[in-house]
Amino acid sequence: MWELRSIAFSRAVFAEFLATLVFVFFGLGSALNWPQALPSVLQIAMAFGLAIGTLVQALGHVSGAHINPAVTVACLVGCHISFLRAAFYVAAQLLGAVAGAALLSEITPPDIRGDLAVNALSNNSTAGQAVTVELFLTLQLVLCIFASTDERRGDNLGTPALSIGFSVVLGHLLGIHYTGCSMNPARSLAPAVVTGKFDNHWVMAETSLPSPPPETHLAGRAWGGISKPSTVLLLGPPWSLGSTLQV
Fold this sequence. Notes:
The chain is mostly helical. The chain has a single domain, classed as Glycerol uptake facilitator protein, CATH 1.20.1080. The protein has helices spanning 7-30, 41-63, 69-77, 83-107, 110-113, 127-148, 160-175, 185-195, 201-205, 214-226, and strands at residues 231-233, 244-246. The protein has a two-stranded antiparallel ribbon. The longest helix is centred in the middle third of the chain and has 25 residues, at 83-107. It is globular and about 50 Å long. Pfam families: MIP (PF00230). Keywords: Cell membrane, Cytoplasmic vesicle, Glycoprotein, Golgi apparatus, Membrane, Phosphoprotein, Repeat, Transmembrane, Transmembrane helix, Transport.
C-alpha cells in the first residue's frame, strides 16, 4: 500500500490514462470513413503503430507506457509489477480509452463517425476464428514487449518504442480483416461504450478477463524458454522487466 503515498505512482497512473486516451483518439480517428479519402488497411495499421511508438517513447520512463490491459496483466503474471499497480493501471487505461473515444465522437460529424471503428467480426469470420486470431496477435505483441525491454540482453536492443510500434502495425495488417484488430481490451471497450454496440464484444475482450489470458502465459513461457537460462529475473521498476541475478 506504500505505493499509494508515492507521487511517482500517481504520475504513472495518470500517464497510463493520458497515453491510452491519446492512443484511442488517434487510432480510431484514423479509421473514420471520410468520403474524400476512405482509410486503407495500411493507413490504419500505421496510425495505431505510430501512436504506440510515440507514446512509449514519450511516457515509457514515467509508467512503462503499457497502454493496454493485456500488457499490464502480462507484467503482473510475470511479477514485474504489483497487483495494486496493475489494478490502477487497468482502471486508468479503460477510463482513458473511453474518454478518448468520447472526445473523438464529439468532434466528428455524425455522418462521419459511424460506429467509431468498433471491433466486430467481419468477412464471415466465426467467433472461434476471431478468438484464435486475437490470441496470436496479442501473443506476438506481448512477446515483442518482453523481448525488446529485457535488460538481460547484451546485444544492441535498439529502441523498444520502434519495435513495439512495428509489432502493433504487424498485428493490424492481419487482424483488421477478421475483427478490426483489437490486441487491446481498452481499445475495444471504448467505442463499444460510446456507441452502445457490444455484439460479440467478448471475442475482443477475452484478454481482459479476471483470470490471466492464455496469450500472456504463452508469451511469458516462450520468452522465458528462449532467453538466457543463466540469469534470474528480479522485480524491478515498473517500466522495465526487472534487474538480473547471475546464477
